[in-house]
Predict the 3D structure of the following.
Amino acid sequence: MSDLTKEAAYIKGLFDGMKLDSQKDETKILSSIISFLEKTADEIDMLDQEQGFLADQIDDVEEVIDVLAEEISDEYDDDADEYQIKCDNCGNNVHFTGDDIDDLVEGNFDCPYCGETVQLDLSGMEDGCDCGCSHDHSEE
């Protein structure tokens, strides 16, 4: 029993204890108002119980979604793919993952064998220009 239901029952008890003349219009109005309060309190109690049930169901669905999302991300984790490049300094094949690509491109990736910075040769990359320079002529 919720606080609203208890409060409505208390008001009804006070009203019944007053032993008012049930034929008077004022008594009929008060009786109707109290009946309305009781029905409203019962309806709110029912809605509160349904909301609690739905919240539990949502929690269960969120747990299932979290498990599925974890399985999907493990299955399709591009950063877990492994690549390799030959170190120009020591000649060893250096393995790296997708997480290391930014460091490699920026020149911040050291060979685990010799400790020298691994340099990428990006000269073969198309830059939109046939003159061999490293800028985009469309901006001129």
